[in-house]
Sequence to fold (587 residues):
Amino acid sequence: MSEITIEHLSKTFLSKDGTVEALKNVDLSIASGDIFGIIGMSGAGKSTLVRCMNYLEIPTEGRVLIDGRALGDFSEKELRKQRESIGMIFQHFNLLMQKSVLDNVCFPLYIQGKTKAQARQRAAELLEIVGLSDKQKAYPAQLSGGHKQRVAIARALASDPKILLCDEATSALDPQTTSQILELLKSINKQFGITIVVITHQMSVVREICEHVAILSGGEVAEQGLVSDIFTHPKTAVAREMILRDSGAEVESGKPLVQSEIQSGEIIRIVFSENSAFEPVIANMILMFREPVNILKADTKNVGGVAKGEMILQFMKNSTNVPAMKGHLAECGLAVGEAPEYGN
Amino acid sequence: MGIEHLLAFSILPEGYTLSSWLDQYGSMLMSGILETIYMTVVSTALGYLFGLPMGVILTVTDKDGLKPNAVVYKVLDVIANIVRSVPFLILLIMLIPFTRFVVGKSYGSTAVIVPLTIAAIPFIARMVESSLKEVDAGVIEAAKSMGASTMRIVFRVLLVEGRTSLIVNATIATGTILGYSAMAGAVGGGGLGAIAVRYGYNRYQYDIMIVTVILLIILFQIFQTVGMFIANKLDRRKTASGN
Fold:
């Protein structure tokens, strides 16, 4: 059964320069126990959408149903009660900076009317779940970003929520810490069966943990479905763009996917800038020397506003043409270098 | 006049030794110090008793606040602006009937506490408002997402997270009220200010005036140092460990 249902949701903000339609007629249904991704560029309305799920933002039109009950029908008191069962974590963690880690986790427990002793005991258990038992007495300012987010997760879990909303929860973290936090979210989802809604602008996050995804663009849902389906058959331009931007799509730290048959040949790295991309340099070289080369990797990076292409090439084993081919590439204006990290 | 008087500032009057000077004026200065501390501390405390809730209400009812209420905000806003725009010396005189009604007389240290408090309330309310508005909106949002009520957010988030800024501003407020208390000396108040006016202005006894000014500076420094020390001591936003 679906845990969160969103029906014809629209949100319009009034500003000095007129009205801004942040969300237009959004329909979503998120199943219980799912990890659901909502992805979009900045300004797509995803933060507004997630805030409608706990009524931090009140929609202009449409309904939000949690377990079949519309949030709009709740009194303020009932709404506060409902929010206790919807945890939320944020991009900038939003911890109380003047309170210790333990007291931060106690905060929602006090809202539930727990005594100090009960709250502290439960908070200590939660900190153990997120792997921070040794940081109870520390203050947030003394913690790294990843640890702060762990505290925030422990705090969000304190009220035994059925839903956890993550608003760009890994956007302020480095890639390695991001993976660790995503792992933690995944295990929480498995262990406690909590439905997780992940708001992000990074396809890599969706790819790593989400089962379903909705792609948001200009306040509308462009596409939604299983992550694996959308990843292989994106139907809309927005979806294709989100996937293309996902530069981390290689498997395991940039190592080539398939080991080549010409195993032990020399490997080089070439870099070309915009202008040299007009000529089919590699194709010409192959025709010229009548000898295959293996392309291990090709990538385009934005370096200081200029598109730089990077390619890792492997020559045939015992090829005598290697110096001449390198010379040819250099003549074409490409930077030729070694690529020891791809060596075998 | 002129240069001779300036020289006289720095030395005791003719015929006095330090001990004979202190014998004559010491106890008066001592009670002046105590009166000044009494007026400043009591007025600041009373100012916070009313100014703190007023500042909280201003913050909560502002249009981006927890419970926006244009009417309540506007009324408090206008009151704060009116009281703050009247120069303190004029306010002191205008409030004489009210002071007499409350305290029974319109002169002396206790009487001065009335106009001091009235002047302090809107000033403190504005200080509190600005401290509380510095509190990170994200933390308030997080508290809301956990189902916290407005009251809980005020007491457990705003006043806790704004603590350092509130104490720094309380230090500034105390300093300002200390200055006002000295000003009240001109129109029948007590304390060091009254002594400075009585002896320095009315009787040209610059030695006493200079000493009272020095004492006021020392008092101000003490308030400032203690306030900043407490603010720092209670701030947990530093990266170094230690509680």
